Amino acid sequence: MFRRCKYLECVERDKACEVWDYLRTLGIQERKVLNVISMCPKVLTLNLNEKLLPVVQCLSTLGTKSAIGISEKQMGKLLLVNPWLINCSIDKKYAEMIDFLSSMGLNGEGAIGKILVKNSWIMGYSAEKRLRPTTDVLKSIGLNMIDIQKVVVNFPKVLCRNVEKILKPNLEFLKQSGFNNEQIRLFVMGYPIILIKNVRHSLQPRIKFLVAEMGREIGEVTDNPEFFRHGLMKSLEPRQRLLKLKKIECSLSEMLECKHKKFLLKFELMALGRRTSRLKIVEVFCLHQEGENESRYSAFTKRVKKVEKPLQNSLSPSPVWRSVRHDVTLLLGSVGCLIQWFVFWFRFKVIWLVLGIILLSAVCSNLLIDPYVIADDGTLDCQALSEVGLARVHFLLD
């Protein structure tokens, strides 16, 4: 921590305690104040009246303006996530950011505060070098100012992405996939995150699955941009598999408009949904017998071993028996542990007992049971005993 802030060693204890106590008054728990200090050690070096109080007041009201308008409850959470906000300059950084967002029409009550709460790291970007070029790209797509305001308020991280490395490659991929400018505009309005998703690992596999596996037209995604929100392995593939096995035809919106449990109830697939692992294995053999798509067959066979255990559990007689079997297994395991502990304890005791007997017999045989140490009257000769003991000791030492 001292390496990250060279002025920390010169801070007076009283001033550091004042800053610590003030952070607690903002709603930050005492155990989490240390996290704030570790992330930004320079906070302890700032003057309370000259820096901290003005910055917090700026975040809440900005003097006469109420554009930021962050509540006291949200202030602690905001500084806990990004304590570097305290170190930002009011005249340069805050004024520049507020002027830029206000020029976009985001000058309503607490509008900028909502943006900062969702993505406080936006304050670390330059308005002219990063935020304005992103806004120009959104305008080039065909979004008007009201649409851009909705994107910035709901998904401020889109505004922070690099234009050349992320936004333009994503737009180019969508155009190469067959989407026209109007469809891309509808995409961005419905799901702006599509502009910052990874092309190779997110967009390309989903579009390929839509056309090759689902057999749908690429234009259907225009009216259902939430298609890119669903996970490929967790949501899209299982639903398509169930619909294919039951030979159910439905629109893309009907397939994606509800959660998985409601989806099963809607298409009466609850029984099949509970046997997902079994269906995977059935589909393997169906594909193999039909001789179609051998690559998919080989991919499914690799996953058979992963679903063997869930399949065995699903084939058990009833949930009650599974519960009883689970309890019996736990009981037998506990009894087995007790038996092992008792055996170990018994062996340990027996070993020490045998060692004690051997040691005692050795002492008695070497010292006491010796004719030389017994006097004529049958009593013990102490002098002879000591001599024997010394002789034994010298013998052992030699």
From TrEMBL:
Asked if the keyword Membrane belongs to this entry, the reply reads yes
The UniProt transmembrane annotation reads: 328-344, 350-369
Q: Which SMART domains match?
A: Mterf
**Source species, domain of life:** Eukaryota
Tell me which Pfam families the record gives. mTERF
Keywords linked to the UniProt accession: Membrane, Transcription, Transcription regulation, Transcription termination, Transit peptide, Transmembrane, Transmembrane helix
List, alphabetically, the InterPro entries matched: MTERF, MTERF_sf
* One of the protein's GO biological processes: DNA-templated transcription termination
Instruction: List the molecular function annotations (GO) for this entry.
Output: nucleic acid binding
Record-stated family: Belongs to the mTERF family.
**What is the name of the protein in this document?**
Uncharacterized protein
Source species of the chain: Dendrobium chrysotoxum (Orchid)
**Which lineage is the organism of this entry classified under, starting from the top rank?**
Eukaryota, Viridiplantae, Streptophyta, Embryophyta, Tracheophyta
